[in-house]
Amino acid sequence: EVQLVESGGGLVQPGRSLRLSCTASGFTFGDYAMSWVRQAPGKGLEWVGFIRSKAYGGTTEYAASVKGRFTISRDDSKSIAYLQMNSLKTEDTAVYYCTRDSPGYYGSGSYPYWGQGTLVTVSS
Amino acid sequence: QSVLTQPPSVSAAPGQKVTISCSGSSSNIGNNYVSWYQQLPGTAPKLLIYENNKRPSGIPDRFSGSKSGTSATLGITGLQTGDEADYYCGTWDSSLSGGVFGGGTKLTVL
């Protein structure tokens, strides 16, 4: 059974940093790209970014709203994907989900597996 | 402002059929597969449709998907009160090199 478990959320002040983790199980983690999707309170889904598998260089893509501030990385030996969030803004307040993406170079936009999400609140 | 456009809300009576539209462009829906998600309050989204019209195991055939050009449609027949939820379309955008979602549609079963 595929499971994704996010952790690391919490309350953080504007301008500070936070790192989220997504621990995966039930599939060969290294074979898949992993995406992060967020949802602000009462709002819709927003794709944040993704990291390709090592077969495609482990390269990353980001939404314009987070590019330059957020960094996604992965540790295939531990089956963990990370979302490093720097220079946080109040508008980054959201539930952050990790999802399993495609095994290929391009993202799929199709996410059959989601974690439970972790809430990040950016407030002074 | 979402890249994909959905109606904010739709409604229908129990047992009836409803469709939800999702409009995009050639860089997203026009050249990539579309997925649909159901999100019940307080829960993570659930994949209903992938590759335009395929249903994951366990999704009833009351849910269907279609795509034409730069638009896609989710259909739900035999509406039940348990279908009340937010529904999102999503796909990959080749120009943005990123995933994109619609703004979501709230379904009310009257």
Automatic annotation (TrEMBL), chain B:
Q: List where this protein forms a coiled coil.
A: none
Q: Which Pfam families would you find in this protein's record? A: V-set
Q: Where in the cell is it found?
A: Cell membrane; Secreted
Origin organism is Homo sapiens
Q: Which InterPro entries match?
A: Ig-like_dom, Ig-like_dom_sf, Ig-like_fold, Ig_sub, Ig_V-set, IgV_Light_Chain
Q: Is Cytoplasm found in the keyword set?
A: no
User: What protein does this entry describe?
Assistant: IG c93_light_IGLV1-51_IGLJ2
GO biological processes: adaptive immune response
The keyword Ribonucleoprotein belongs to this UniProt entry's keyword annotation: no
For this protein's source organism, the top of the classification is:
Eukaryota, Metazoa, Chordata, Craniata, Vertebrata
